[in-house]
Design goal:
Blueprint (H helix, E strand, L loop, with lengths): L5 H24 L9 H45 L13 E5 L4 H10 L6 E2 L10 E5 L6 H12 L1
Antiparallel strand pairs: 1-3, 2-3
Amino acid sequence: MSIITYRNFKSNILYYIFYMVINTFCFYLGNSKCHTTSNICTNNSLCALAAAMYMASLGGSGMRELAILNHDKSEYLKGQLGGAGLPLSFETPTFNEFVVKCPKDFRITYEHLVAKKIVAGLPLEPYYPELAQHYLLCATETKSKEDMDDLVKEIVS
C-alpha cells in the first residue's frame, strides 16, 4: 500500500496528461508503433486536452467569471421562458441547466425548431416517463442574448 503525497499525485497527473497527448498525436499521425486500439480513448484524450487548455487559458478568475456568466444567462432564459408561459418544473436553484414543462403540442414545435437547427432542449420523457412534456434546457457562454430571445420567440410563435 502506497501513501499518496502531493508529489506523487502531481507526477501521476503529469504522466497521465503526457500519455493523453502522445496517444492523441499517435492516432492522428497514424504511427504504427503507437498502440492506439480505440478511438474512444483518443477522443477522451482530445476532450480532456481541450478542456485543460480552455481552463488554463481562462485562469482562476476567468473560471469564476465564466461560472457567473453561465448562471446569469440561465437565469435570463428561465425568466424569458417563464414570461412566455412555460413554467419551471422544479423550484430548486440551478446553475446553467433547468427543466421546463411545455404544452402537449410542443413536439411539433420542437421538430420545427430542430429543422431550423435550433435545439430547444432535451426531451426528458424517454429517460423519465413521469416527466412527459418536460425539456431540459441549458444556457452557456456560447449563446448570446439574441440566440436566447430567438429561441423564446420561436417557441411562442
